[in-house]
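Progress report, Aim 2. The chain analyzed during this reporting quarter is listed below.
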Amino acid sequence: MHILLTGANGYIGMRLLPTLLEAGHTVTCIVRSIPRFPSSQFRPFITNNQLTLLEGDFLGDLPPVPKDIDAAYYLLHSMGTGSDFAEREAECAHRFTSWIKSRQVIYLSGLVPKGSLSTHLASREKVNDLLRQGPTPVTTLRASIIVGSGSASFEIIRDLAEKLPFMITPKWTANLCQPIAIRNVIGYLTGVLEHEETLGEEFDIGGPDMLSYRKLLTGYASTRHLKRLIIPIPFFTPGLSARWLYLVTAASYPLAKSLVQSLVNETICQDERLSKLIPQNLLTYEQAIDKAFVRIAQNKVPSSWFDSLASGHLDPAFLQSVQVPSHGILSDKQTFSLKSEREQAITSVWSLGGAKG
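Predicted structure tokens for the chain:
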């Protein structure tokens, strides 16, 4: 099959692309910046013309649509990148439906909770509606928290549990969610390819566990053999929660704000049709964490939430050289001998700061 992949530089795109190539598909990736794409990693596929890179921006200039596209993945999101991200997401979706020519569009969205939607989830639903107004049948997959090395949600959980021996949390952390392992997400994304029963349909996807957000933290800590105390308090507002995440974790404030707004309501699957249409071994939360740390221990994390242009502006060559810390914290230990006496060395250490800098 000839597949078009948008968002190829992003977290999901970089996980999905190798799976598609290894399955023998021909893939065309459209990215905003080809220099940011890790071409060396995929050079054999580029050389044999199995992988083609196109540069284009769905808010700017677009190349001619490739011919003979069988299916297209729509993985464009702007979460946490400005107050007008919903308008930009809608514009991207509108231009995509006018541009693409294929037999199927596959869209990964978020689980829709009961009650009012956050700005982030409302935007995802608006994009889904716009995609469905086009001439191509859309298969929509909705997921809650995705557990995998490098995902925004997982890395925030990891930051909190690794760094803080005790935490105060808002009441809504008792709400339920249904986390799903990244490999199961990829399994569903590839499984719906030209699957007749999935064309034009919308599916919820989740793992076997329904856990509170508090249980996500304690479950992670238990898997890592960490003792953590969590104290719920009633006056922790979403705004205060977002600022706290921004302070303690690697998340930017807009990203933290979007995530918190989406977590206030429960996000659990309302149907399990896809698990019957595309059966696979759904990993538990603990198993997903273990799989993530296999990648981290080998320093083989294939993608991270900050890889996309929407999330960061670091040179990708630099990002490839950074080793992911196994305990959520980078440590640099250096040892050398001091020629001074012990007491003199101690006095020098304690005199650091102040006027001496």
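Confidence is low (pLDDT under 50) at residues 297-322. The two ends are 62 Å apart (CA to CA). These observations will guide the mutagenesis work planned for the next reporting period.
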